[in-house]
Automatic annotation (TrEMBL), chain A:
This is Putative 60S ribosomal protein. Keywords: Ribonucleoprotein, Ribosomal protein. It comes from Arachis hypogaea (Peanut). SUPFAM superfamilies: Translation proteins SH3-like domain. Pfam families: Ribosomal_L14e. Residues 45-117 form the Large ribosomal subunit protein eL14 domain. Belongs to the eukaryotic ribosomal protein eL14 family. InterPro entries: Rib_uL2_dom2 (IPR014722), Ribosomal_eL14 (IPR039660), Ribosomal_eL14_dom (IPR002784), Translation_prot_SH3-like_sf (IPR008991). GO terms for biological process: ribosomal large subunit biogenesis; translation. GO terms for cellular component: cytosolic large ribosomal subunit. GO terms for molecular function: mRNA binding; structural constituent of ribosome.
From TrEMBL, chain B:
Residues 54-65 have a biased composition (Pro residues). Residues 172-198 have a biased composition (Basic and acidic residues). Belongs to the eukaryotic ribosomal protein eL6 family. Residues 41-86, 172-199 are annotated as: Disordered. This is Large ribosomal subunit protein uL6 N-terminal domain-containing protein. CDD domains: KOW_RPL6. Residues 3-62 form the Large ribosomal subunit protein uL6 N-terminal domain. GO terms for biological process: cytoplasmic translation; ribosomal large subunit assembly.
Amino acid sequence: MPFKRFIEIGRVALINYGKEHGRLVVIVDVIDQNRALVDAPDMVRSQVNFKRLSLTDLKVDIKRVPKKKELIKAMEDADVKNKWEKSSWGRKLIVRKTRANLNDFDRFKLMLVKIKKAAVVRQELAKLKKTSA
Amino acid sequence: MAPKQRTARKVSRNPELIRGIGKYSRSKMYHKRGLWAIKAKNGGVLPRHDPKPKPQAPSQKPPKFYPADDVKKPLVNKHKPKPTKLRASITPGTVLILLAGRFKGKRVVFLKQLPSGLLLVTGPFKINGVPLRRVNQSYVIGTSTKVDVSGVNVDKFDDKYFAKEAEKKKKKEEGEFFESEKEEKKVLPQEKKDDQKTVDSALLKSIESVLDLKAYIGARFSLKQGMKPHELVF
């Protein structure tokens, strides 16, 4: 039951509320009991309440409040982007985003593919049922 | 130098320093406008044109009847209505979803906007049974799917093409109410059927070139479980 993900300098977090919803950021300093100073390569360094952050497993090796260039280099060394996109959490977010941006035509094509897949699965199931019966 | 090259001068020669105050004084402006030259050409005075003879208006007889109270005349309105502004998402070739009427839910190809503001639309008829038809922009969802309509000529279609034929007034007699049935069925003139075919043949080629597009246009749109219209991207 112990905590595994801590608020620490270098912790990668996801902003889960507000204007920056969905952004991956790095905690760069702790301001006080409730707030952290947070930074990302394409964002102005700003403060964020802990309640708006969801901590991830990823960590970056930085000193307290690094310069932007150092932050970018450290993020590339830790390979944050690829690790995030490969993680199951990151993949789920990507899937959710693509589903939300589907065109009406895309949804139709998806439906056709789903029907095909279900037909194949059902065929195999019928075969298995036959052999086991 | 024979033709006088004069650009239509609309801007004043007196630049504005602040609203109401020009840069040059009256005397300077007199010189700038060249009124001295005009006067010199005309012998010291500004040229005077005699008024053109006005055509004599036909003499009207005094009216027979004056209303007891003063009748107010309505203000003159020279407003000419423009066709409705077309949404930016609707361009020729866009697939539209019809929301009301006989063909509700059908996906349909947009051809052009008619001068009345209504949208000219076709199924194509072979694919989903929607003929060349007019549709109001408000009852339509514009999707982001586009079909190539460069091979289609829609110049001949306008609002008059779709006007209802004026029915001849028939005198009904009591006896005929119960005896005669309406024998005349409205048959589509062959010309309109041919128009449909020519428009559709060009469209069908471009539709069949895209995978699944024909099945897409043949299917009706409906909201399924979990679909939230305000979150859907069309």
